[in-house]
Each structure stands twice: as structure tokens, then as C-alpha cells.
Specification:
Shape: rod-shaped
Strand content: under 5%
Number of domains: 1
Helix content: over 70%
Largest sheet: none
Distance between the termini: 144 Å
Structural class: mainly alpha
């Protein structure tokens, strides 16, 4: 077995120091690479988020247009419902008046017609 002389110990210490210096240098490079990669990823992610935000804005505008269309359609249906209700009420009123006349009310002849032309309801 070889003896450890001061020279050999110094050589070993130098090699260990050099090895650690190389490892320290590599670690510094890796840290720099990680920083650069992180910055690139953040930039890419921010660009992606910006694109997604723009897409959401476009979709929101489309929904706003659709909502306005539905509002106009709702107003049309409301008007149609009011007209249908008015027509139904008028029809019921006319039917009611016709039915009430048929329950014994005398019907006067049209103006200028003789009284004999008056229509009486059947009993």
C-alpha cells in the first residue's frame, strides 16, 4: 500500500477542489437554464392566457347578441299574446251577447224594416 505523502494529499485536495468547481459551474449553468426556461414558459403561458381571454370576449359578445335577439322575440310573443287575448275576449263577448239574445230577449227589426221581420229566438 502506498503511503500518503503531503504531495499526494495536496494533489488529492486539488482534484477534489477542481471537481467541486466543475460541479458548481454545472449547477450554475442548470440554474441559469431553469431561469430562462421559466421565463420562456411564463411568457408562453401569458400569451396563451391572452388568447383565451380574447376568445372569451368574443364568445361574450356573441351571447350578448343572442340575448338581444331573444329579448326582441320575447317582445313579439308578448304582443302576440296580448292580441290573442284581446281577440279571445272579443269572441267570448260576441258569443255571450248572441247567447243572451237567444234566451228570450226581443230582437228589434233593422231600422226601416217592418216589425213583422223581427227575428225571435226559437223556444
Amino acid at each position: 500500500m502506498a503511503e500518503w505523502t503531503d504531495k499526494r494529499m495536496d494533489d488529492l485536495a486539488d482534484q477534489v477542489r477542481d471537481g467541486f468547481a466543475r460541479v458548481d459551474g454545472e449547477i450554475a449553468k442548470v440554474r441559469e437554464d431553469v431561469k430562462e426556461t421559466r421565463a420562456e414558459l411564463r411568457s408562453e403561458m401569458q400569451e396563451g392566457f391572452t388568447r383565451v381571454d380574447k376568445q372569451f370576449d368574443r364568445i361574450d359578445k356573441q351571447f350578448d347578441r343572442i340575448d338581444k335577439r331573444f329579448d326582441r322575440i320575447d317582445k313579439r310573443f308578448e304582443r302576440a299574446n296580448r292580441w290573442a287575448l284581446a281577440i279571445a275576449v272579443a269572441a267570448i263577448g260576441l258569443l255571450g251577447a248572441d247567447v243572451l239574445q237567444g234566451f228570450g230577449g226581443d230582437v228589434t227589426p233593422p231600422p226601416g224594416a217592418p216589425a213583422s221581420e223581427a227575428v225571435r229566438p226559437a223556444k
